[in-house]
Amino acid sequence: MTRLLRTRTAAALAGAAATLLVLLLAGQPLVERLPWRDKPVDDTSQPEILMPARITALATSPQSETMPVVTGDLVLWRTGRGDNVTVAGRDLATGETIRLPIAETVGSRVAASGTIVVWPDPRQGCIIVHDLASGRTRTVAQGSDPQWVAVSGHTVVWEDSRSGAGDIYGCDLRTDRTFPICVHPARQSRPAISGDLVVWEDWRGARSDIYARDLATGRTFVVCDDPATQVQPAVSGTIVVWQDERHGDSDIYAVDLADGQERPICVRPENQSAPAVAGNLIVWQDARDGNQDIYGYDLAGEREIGICVDPRTQGSPSVDGGVVAWEDRRNGRPDIYLAVLVR
Predict the structure, then answer these.
(1) Cα-based distances in Å from 145 to 150, 155, 191
(2) In 114-208, at which residue ranges do the beta strands (DSSP E only) sit?
(3) Is 23 helix (H, G, I), strand (E, B) or coil?
(4) How far apart are CA 230 and CA 209, in angstroms?
(5) Alpha-carbon span 233 to 282, nearest angstrom
(6) pLDDT (tens digit, 9 = 90+) per residue, 106-159?
């Protein structure tokens, strides 16, 4: 552990995040470092793989632990099966275990921002909001048909099927005011939000494109409308990433809206999918070895990183502040594993 901490720089985790990890891992064995594997990259325009990350099991149990989300010091996930699904989590700063008593059955992951946790309840036609700081639980957007939720600060957004096709709505958690973001005869789905910027899949064309709306200005605009299919957008600040099929399989693309520069992140022949982004770090699940692994790309250092390359399947990554969590099936069932990336 001491040797691991010495390798971290202030730029990597700003000091405080490294302290949080020590608190989390105190008394818990680390999973043995995976062997570094030199994976040649056929496309010479792509950076070489630099290093794997040390990883640890965060939640392993006979239950099904799925769909993690990382926000600040918190890692949250779904636990259970069928109708007995609840929200569980871990506070990385204190090591405290979190379990919310309200069950839900919808297939999407919970969403969180700071101490606010949200998830859809299509049975009651609303979104459940829980504040971990106060312990208060409430509902918003009554009368909606929420299918996929995301939250940033005081704004929650979701895919809403009340009109049949699927539209994007939002709610200001300070006032509980619900408002439309994109209502169109075609389907809009899988929204993501960062600050005032909302992005989503938009099916108004022949295939799905990526659209966005700036809530501060009210402007809706196209992020990517390549003739191929673009899906599963994620956003952090001005960086938007998505899964792109312009080369026939699934690749990862990104654009910085500050300069409008679009760039391929990973365009290997095998499928790359389910991207997530936080700051300059993009992560995704990658099938280059025949099973799904977790890879990342550092925009600042322009390098690709093999985060978890265990022979079993890993997927559904989430990232914040250099901490990456994912579903891991090395034990035959989905568990939650975690890695801290270092420079």
Answers:
(1) 14, 17, 14
(2) 116-121, 126-131, 137-140, 146-152, 155-160, 167-172, 177-182, 188-194, 197-202
(3) helix
(4) 5
(5) 12
(6) 556 799 999 999 998 888 899 999 999 999 999 999 988 898 999 999 999 999
Which residue is it, tokens 């690749």?
251
| Structure token pair of residue 112 | 């969180």
| CATH for the stretch 2-340 | 2.120.10.30
Please report the DSSP string for 158-181 in residue order. EEE-TTSS-EEEEEETTTTEEEEE
Domain ranges, ordered by start, for the chain:
2-340
**In this structure, what token pair is assigned to residue 173?**
């958690």
Q: How far apart are CA 208 and CA 213, in angstroms?
A: 16
Report yes or no: 239 and 252 within 8 Å, Cβ to Cβ: no
Q: For residue 2, what are its two tokens?
A: 């001491």
At which residue do the structure tokens 């999407």 appear?
A: 108
> Maximum distance among all alpha carbons in the chain?
57
Q: Which two tokens stand for residue 95?
A: 């090591």
